[in-house]
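ESCALATION

Customer reports they have been waiting on this structure for their group meeting. Please prioritize. Original submission:
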Amino acid sequence: MCPCSIDGPGGVLAHASFPNGDEGYVTEVHVDRAESWHIHISRNPPRTHSLLYVIAHEIGHTLGLHHSEHKDSIVFAMAPSKTKFPITLNFDDIFHIRYPYGANYHGSTTKYHLPPPLQLLLQQQQQQHRKTSIMNRVSYEILI
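Update from on-call: job pushed to the front of the queue and completed.
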């Protein structure tokens, strides 16, 4: 993570680079040091941004996640005005990180059994992800 001046207060909070598949390539997260940042495990004071939330969002990009259409996703394009605590990942976040990296079913005793409608949704999202990931392999996402 590198604090830098991006565009001053009230604009872009942070940005991150996507992995490009090259050996030795390092992705980076830059946060705008001009913003009012607070790190709280509970709610942040008014007119401040949750550094934990923004960093989680940007780390999603460094792992290859693109913006989601789901407003409760950690990688939704807009930072929420009120961050939910604790910060959690939704189904869309979990699916899209497991698709390229796989799931660690051996690290937990939790079993994942999806009902048929969710299995169909998962298959559709996998097909869509395959189509878009090729076009977006090297890209740059900005959280606004």
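Sent to customer with the following note: The radius of gyration is 16 Å.
Escalation resolved.
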